[in-house]
Amino acid sequence: MTDISKPRQIWYLIFILSFIYLIIVGPVYYLITKYSRYSYSFYLIYGLNTLLFCFIFLFVGRYSTNQTSQIYSLIIAEVVPDHKTIISEWSSMGIVSGGNFIITHEGDSHIYCTCQPYNKVSGFTTSGTQGQLQADIPPNSFRTFFHHARIPEPLIMAKSASFLINESGLESLTLEIGKEFPSNVEQAHFVFDSNIYELQREKNQLIYQGKSRKLSPLLLENPLLDSSYIAPNQLFPFVRPKENNQSLAWEQFFPILVQKSLNVSSDHVNQNISWPVHKGKLLVLAKVPESLFPKTPEIFKKEGLILYSLDIPLSDQGS
Length: 319
Hints:
Mean pLDDT: 79
Shape: elongated
Number of helices: 6
Low-confidence stretches: 227-245
Distance between the termini: 44 Å
Structural class: alpha+beta
Helix content: 10-25%
Order of helices and strands: HHHEEEEEEEEEEEEHHHEE
Strand content: 35-45%
């Protein structure tokens, strides 16, 4: 997220301008001092050129990006038994203009912290009902943070309409969903026993249509560690870096979000994982709604993925 959120600068243009400036400072100034009759002509040209390049570098350094402050977020929204929702959010903000920003969210309880263990952050955080994160963000830079909150209403609701269980797991499953079901859904799955089942939406229902897989191999996946994704594509990546897809593709983050949602640590991900047969867990991956992004007016581009998590009671008998 940090890579796609931070403002992009045209480094090759900065390098070309620096090379031109060095040529002017060296050979050009030498020729001017050699053939100029009056010394004030040299100082006049020197001063004007220095002033000109100061403004050029100032302009290029500040305005060579896309000029759009943006935020990318990954969120897990778990509906708990009292019909409240627990939010766990990882975000990265890319800021063009810079400044002192106050980050707040909706909800009745908040915990904030920065996710930069190797860099000091100028600012402070407060927790509780009026929790917020205040941080200084320099121009053309980014700030990552973690946000944990409680929202007083469920963000997703569903219940079992019919199901059939056999020796290998679920044979059929139909879930009823309400009007509050999220829009822009990317994927819907149901975790039962040691398998994960893909669901398809048909009007006000989610239906299992026979596509499933073992859960453990999914939890071992991490597409972000693929060498083709993180390796530079040429000798000087700082001049023209590899252009990754500037979006949060669900294929990249779905295994990671599932692992976090099921609270499976990396130490136990290789073990056989199964859940009690009397219940399952509905996992719905969708685009983050506007209401869950920070209430910061300086952010114009907002993108993110949210994984809704809801326990669905089942019994040992099919219905």
